[in-house]
Amino acid sequence: MANEKLVLSLDTGDVVINLRPDLAPGHVERIKELVGEGFYDGVKFHRVIPGFMAQGGCPQGTGMGGSSKPDLQAEFNDAPHVRGVCSMARTSYPHSANSQFFICFDDARFLDKQYTVWGEVESGMEHVDALPKGEPPAKPGVINKASIVSA
Length: 151
Fold this sequence. Notes:
Blueprint: E1 4-10, E2 13-19, H1 25-36, E3 43-49, E4 53-56, E5 85-88, E6 101-104, E7 117-123, H2 125-129, E8 142-143, E9 145-150
């Protein structure tokens, strides 16, 4: 099976993310399903903290929402939370990831084995770096289009 990638088209350019079904098959499947439904198109990066991470995937843009699908069972793995790693956001309950995700700007190893890593940025990290900062940003960055491509 071909290696699949998630492409997030932002105003500043495309972010290409290697999907890692070997680490988190259920989470990768959910992301592909949501992308196929157009769920992420037009969704904002509502929480962007310099030196930490950029979070998106909430349809309301508040960080409080998710998809109508059931929450996922955690798939914690050994992949480290380092620059460019993509992981699922959740509440304090381990099995509450749904549609929100974050991309690490820097090492965040304190998150290791507590959040599900499902991919890593292959190219376009400079576009993640360029996202407007804030919780929420005054003018948040938006995912114009999300798509899955085979490599």
